[in-house]
Design a protein that fits this description.
Blueprint lengths: L2 E3 L2 H12 L4 E3 L6 E5 L3 H11 L8 E3 L6 H4 L5 H10 L4 E6 L6 H4 L4 E5 L4 H10 L3 E2 L14 H8 L5 E4 L10 E4 L6 E4 L5 H8 L4 E2 L2 H6 L16 E4 L4 H10 L4 E5 L2 H7 L7 E4 L4 H16 L5 E5 L8 H10 L2 E3 L1
Parallel strand pairs: 1-8, 2-8, 4-6, 5-9, 10-11, 12-15, 12-16, 13-14, 13-15
Antiparallel strand pairs: 2-3, 3-7, 4-7, 5-6, 9-10
Helix pairs in contact: 1-6
The chain binds threonylcarbamoyladenylate (TXA) and magnesium ion (MG).
Length: 334
């Protein structure tokens, strides 16, 4: 399926397809989503087939605004209203107790539902034209890197999707922050562009932060360590460890790809052992997040033996990126 430029006619066409129970990939500010009518269980089932995703993994329902919260949530706590007022439209998904009529296939059989109003003109126009909620996971095959450009969706899903709306490269580049408001205390289930500190400032309370292990087993079965992984073996390395690792791998005639902050430095240290492909990464966390998945995807396409990723700072600002890098790399070297 070739992506189509998301003008008014394309968006009307896409909304029609959604009404017919078909699948539409569309841009959001975080990553591209693979959308279906969230109130149509057969349509939502097609998402799981297209992605090859296990059926017990819940999906986020995209809505056109705060007014739609009551269509999906049984009750809307003040905390949800406060966060939505501050951050919507935006890269924040809220987990709330669901209304009984929300299809089980959307929530993976859980009694909660994930909701978010995306901050992308194409996504918002599609939601307006369609008029209902759109269930949409990231538009990649299960366990693969999320797409941040329309061409990535085409690569991932081919003809398993009925329409790909092209709205350019995603501005944020990593998936939304997820906050669970269904229990007694708010929990951060997935870090994202909107930070824990920003959320705590609005709620005036501390978030419970799920340890990655707990996150996987308790609330969000979709978040396994293999999520977001390139097919190529990938390893995080501290800046100090990089030259020796590159030297050793080169001696073993391995083809190496490298994501690094400072190409010049790396070139100079390993002048005789240059990696096969180096991508220089931005120094600011927001800029890094925006290009991370495209960079991993590019290296993954080069039939390398290994991808090395220079470890970013382990600070709050880099939390979402480090979370995704942890999932994309199976090895670490300090
Ligand atoms: O930025 C995003 O959120 C993107 C764009 C397309 O909006 N979507 C996205 O969807 O990342 P997906 O399916 O790849 O990730 C959604 C995550 C899953 O890990 C899932 O486990 C969690 O949200 N989730 C959804 N509903 C949930 C629920 N009721 N309880 C706990 N976790 C839930
Ligand atoms: Mg995903």
């Amino acid at each position: 399926m070739k992506p189509i430029f998301a003008d008014d006619a394309a968006i009307e066409h896409a909304a029609d397809l959604l009404r017919q129970g078909r699948l539409v990939a569309f841009p959001t500010e975080t990553v591209y989503g693979l959308g279906a009518d969230a109130s149509n269980p057969d349509a939502v089932r097609r998402i799981f087939l297209a992605k090859g995703r296990p059926a017990d993994h819940p999906l986020i329902v995209h809505i056109a605004g705060v007014d739609s919260l009551n269509d999906w949530a049984l009750t809307v706590p003040d905390t949800a209203r406060q966060l939505a007022a501050r951050f919507w439209p935006g890269p924040l998904a809220l987990i709330l107790n669901k209304r009984p009529e929300v299809p089980d296939v959307v929530t993976g059989g859980q009694d909660t539902v994930g909701l978010r109003m995306p901050d992308h003109p194409v996504a918002l126009r599609l939601l307006q034209a369609f008029g209902g909620g759109i269930a949409a996971p990231s538009a990649n095959r299960f366990c693969r890197i999320s797409p941040t450009q329309a061409a990535h969706v085409e690569e991932e899903l081919g003809d398993a999707v009925d329409c790909i709306l092209d709205g350019g490269a995603c501005r944020v580049g990593v998936e939304s922050t997820i906050v669970d408001l269904s229990g007694n205390r708010p929990r951060l289930l997935r870090p994202g562009h909107i930070s824990r500190v920003e959320i705590e400032a609005v709620l005036q309370t501390e978030l419970i932060v799920m340890a990655p292990q707990a996150e996987q087993t308790v609330r969000a079965p979709g978040m396994m360590t293999v999520h977001y992984a390139p097919a190529t073996l990938a390893m995080r390395c501290s800046t100090n460890a990089l030259p020796a690792i590159i030297q050793e791998l080169t001696a073993q005639h391995k083809k190496i790809g490298l994501l690094a902050f400072n190409k010049g430095m790396i070139n100079c240290v390993v002048a005789d052992n240059e990696p096969d492909k180096i991508i220089r990464m931005p120094k600011r966390a927001d800029d890094y997040a925006k290009v991370l998945y495209a960079a991993l995807r590019e290296l993954d396409s080069l039939q390398l033996d290994i991808i090395l990723v220079e470890q970013p700072p382990e600070t709050e600002q880099w939390r979402a990126i480090n979370d995704r890098l942890c999932k994309a790399t199976s090895l670490q070297c300090r």
